[in-house]
Amino acid sequence: MYSDLSGKTAIVTGSSKGIGKGIAERFGKEKMNVVVDYLTDPSGAEDTKAAIESNGGKAVIVQADVSKEQGIRLLMETAAKEFGSLDVLVNNAGFSESAQSEELTLENWQRVLDVNLTGAFIASREAIKHMTDNGIKGSIINITSVHQTIPKVANVHYGVTKAGLKMLTETLALEYAEQGIRINAIGPGTINTPANPVHEQDEQAKQQTLTKIPMKKVGEPEQIAAAAAWLASSEADYVTGATLFVDGGMTLYPSQLK
């Protein structure tokens, strides 16, 4: 636990399930105030809120489309209204719709870019405005992927957004380092989430998945959440512009990940 996080306020986009839910719940354990964002899963958002509050934190739920400026502004306004400030932003919302590149429609391409990359830019821009206006030395954490560096077949749009998030992280970190605003990224490997239900795979598929992971095991959302809590805390106050891979070693040999 990081005592300096107690009472601070965080927005976690896409926090009704998966990695975002894990991060929001860990922030609850840190006794933080959390704005829980969802788009289509209200019951999942309620579960996240309940877990945060049972762990000693505070939470409020917002339905917001993070690919739209009005959605991001609603999240920011809620943080200010309910908790008075914003200290931590986690750009977690993201998805992919797999398709071979020659069959990838412009609509599909644009939808993934809007959520995964444009939404993170808008949210980061608005958070930075709030932090600079109020003298807050805050933290922004972008959830990228091992696929910011490892190509993924039939997911060119997804890979492009994750590589874009890497450069967004590094550019903003450089731009706002002097103001004490730290911008970092976490690059998950194969994590057991509803979007990637490894536990539901048959044995052959599981073993094929494990051949890509040097540690021979799949990660859990709680492990990404632990990295997020550290990056948000003062323990990481000399860390900015970095991507912390939490991947069981997947990025050690990308040539095997075809």
Automatic annotation (TrEMBL):
Name of this chain's protein: Glucose 1-dehydrogenase
UniProt GO MF annotations: glucose 1-dehydrogenase [NAD(P)+] activity
The keyword Oxidoreductase is assigned to this record: yes
One Pfam family it belongs to: adh_short_C2
EC number: 1.1.1.47
UniProt-listed InterPro entries: NAD(P)-bd_dom_sf, Sc_DH/Rdtase_CS, SDR, SDR_fam
UniProt cross-references to Gene3D superfamilies, sorted A to Z: NAD(P)-binding Rossmann-like Domain
Organism listed in the record: Metaplanococcus flavidus
Keywords: Oxidoreductase
Listed PROSITE patterns: ADH_SHORT (PS00061)
EC category name: oxidoreductase
Similarity comment: Belongs to the short-chain dehydrogenases/reductases (SDR) family.
